[in-house]
């Protein structure tokens, strides 16, 4: 059974992560003003990098690994928004942008997660 305080920590951290995502995505979208979901890409790639670091450090973090990884970074990153934006781009007939969003973000996120794991394991 998951301890109540740990579950509460994950829930609170998830809310903070979701709020951080909203603020960062909004700021990037306002600053770039291009019809491509740059904000979501930045959020998912940086979230993947940070989750890699947390995972690499997990053995030394104890329960904080769950709070940071599952809670904070789980709330911060967004697969569903990325999927929705890819479908929206395809519906608009913007096939290159949809393809770049789907596969480009996946590739960048995987590379960022790998880099994060490497960085997290350097202690």
From TrEMBL:
Its main location: membrane. The keyword Ribonucleoprotein does not apply. It is a multi-pass membrane protein. Pfam families: CRCB. It is found in: Cell membrane. Na(+) is not transported, but it plays an essential structural role and its presence is essential for fluoride channel function. InterPro entries: FluC. It catalyses: fluoride(in) = fluoride(out). Na(+) binds at residues 74, 77. Keywords: Cell membrane, Ion channel, Ion transport, Membrane, Metal-binding, Sodium, Transmembrane, Transmembrane helix, Transport. Fluoride-specific ion channel. Important for reducing fluoride concentration in the cell, thus reducing its toxicity. This is Fluoride-specific ion channel FluC. The chain crosses the membrane at residues 49-76, 97-119.
